[in-house]
Structures are given as structure tokens and as C-alpha cells.
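Z., the sequence and structure:
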Amino acid sequence: MQKKTSDEVPKEVPIPKVPAANKGAVEFLSLIELKEIKYCIFGESLVAISESGETIGTFTISVEQTSYSPDDWDEEDVYLVRASSKGTIDGIPCTTSITGYVTKKLETVEQHTKESVRFREHPVETRTHVVRRQDQLFVSKTVIERDEEIHVDTFSYKLAQLHGLVSESANFLVMRVMARRQAVPQDAIFLAFGIDQHICPCTYRPLGVQKQKVGKEEVEVFVIERVVHSVDEVPLCWQFYFLSDGHLSRRVQVGSPATMVILQMPILIDTDEPDPRPVFEKIPLDWEEDVQLYSQFLDRKEELKASHATYVRRHPELRALLADFLQLLLLRKPDDVVTFAAEFFAPFSAERPPCRSFRHSDKPSPFRSHV
């Protein structure tokens, strides 16, 4: 690609009035939960079929979790969405690729789109870059003909104007959620990028459940129609056919000679339902009336008695020590028995320094003479 001969910085072009999404669309996006999106993170591949039934290309979509850092400082957990279609229509190679970073709230922070039509004498490539910076969304569209950059448009939108925006990369996640629910918000008006990359209204409409043959198997698919209503262009219309878990089984763009279909059934993604928490009923327990428990109680009682008796026989000093303590206790009769016991046994501790014993019971004896 050759650089532009002019060093002038492209100026922002005026943009038409930005439409607004309605309340139903904004609420629908805000109520999508992370646990729903968790089951929409997968890759899939379809083939492009011509009107004559010939395979003329491929169509792939992948969604994965990653981190996004526009300034190599603050990182944000996002979804990385990639979509690519390659094919040959009427002998002309055509490719389209989309790479987008979508937040967990399904807001687009950056998106790269490239469309290429390789005519023999006049190849044309259109590149669009969308990036969020602070409170604005910047859009840059570049047209390259014969490997020479000939036209650049740049414009920006305030994020406050873009509530309900569903970019092309976010659209794959939104539609997978709709497919898994098998429900589309009624009369909801979203926002999307049109052909010229200006913001325009976008609607989704359910076309019901239909039958589709995949390989040798006939399955039910949920059909959603998406229409982007460009202001000065013909509306763009697609019909998406989804399996129950959100896998795309067919995609038809109105006016396009190619249809995207899957050739074999994918492994469907099951929703992990947590096991119900077990409930244990409280059973009244009367161990004295339970023969088995009472027998275990008696056995344990005799076992402890035997163990204690054995210990006392092996340590005869224990009897002498206890007898001495009880004798002194009955002689002194202290009010604080606990403190008296602590002071009595304190000299037997190897860690305590020597001290005078029985301070609390050391009363003068009436049988001693005081000098």
C-alpha cells in the first residue's frame, strides 16, 4: 500500500443526525446476564453455497475472552469477536473480516472491519476502524483502490448518544443470546453501523421455528431477521437460522447470491444446571430408647472406665497427690477453691519461678504465739 501524497490530516466530515434507540432495546441489552453470555463463547464454521449449489467460500465466527488495554495501562476484561468470510462470486474473489473487542455490557471499545473485492484491473478495499476514547467513539473509513489510499472519512459520536448500539461484532453475541432464549424483544429499535458507517436504526424480528436438514438429520431452527435501516441507502437485511444452543445453521443476506450453511451437526452446548441442594430432615433421636445407640453408649462407657483405671494403676503418685490436695483443702477451707488449687499445683510446673505457696489461705494460726 502506498502512502497518501498529501500530508494533510483528514478532517472530520459532517454526520447526519444520530437516531436514538428506544427503551425496549436499551433495557434488553442491560438485562443480559454474564451467565447467558458464558454459553455463547465458542467458534463455528459454515460454507458459502451458490444458487446452483456449488461451494464457493467459507464463513467462520469465533468468540473468546481476553483483556483489552488501549494504553498499556488499564486492562479490561472483554470478549474478542472474529468473523471472516472468503469466497468467489462470479469469478471475483471477495473477503470480509471483522475483529472487535466487546465489553461484558456488550459495548464495543474497538472494531476493525476490512472488505476486499479483487477485480482484475481495479481491486478495491475498504477499511473501517472504530475505537472508543474517553466519552467519544471515533470512526475512520479508508478506501484503497489499486493499492493506493484515495479516500478517508473520519467522524465521531458522543457515547451518550449511542445507548442501544449493537456493532457487527457485538451482534453475534446478542443474536446468540436471542437464539438461546428463542425470543426477540418486541418493537425494539437498536442502533447499528450502516453501509457508510454512520449510525442508523436496526431492528430484529422473529420468523418463528422452522425445519432445516443438516447432513442427514432434520432439526428445528429458530429464525431471526435483522434489518439495518440506512438513511440514504437500501436497508440491509439478513436472516439467521439458529440451533437451540446458539450455533448458526444458516445465514441468508437478502440480495446476495451466496448462502452460508453448516454441513454437519455441531456438538450442542448444554447448560450446566446446578444440582439442587440436598435437604436433610431433622429426625428426633432418643438414644436411650434406641437399642443400638444405647449399646454403643454402654460399650464406650466401659471402655473409658477401663482406660482411666489402667492409667491410675500405672501412676500411683496420682492418688498420693490428690489425697494430699484434698487433705490440705479440707484443713484450710478456702473461699476461692480454684485459686487455692492453682497455687497448690503451681510448684509442680517447671516453667513457673518458685514462689510462696498458699498465699490466699495463709492465715495466722491461733495455736502459735506471736512475739
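Residues 1-10, 365-371 have pLDDT under 50 and may be disordered. The CA atoms of residues 31 and 105 lie 9 Å apart.

Let me know what you think.
H.
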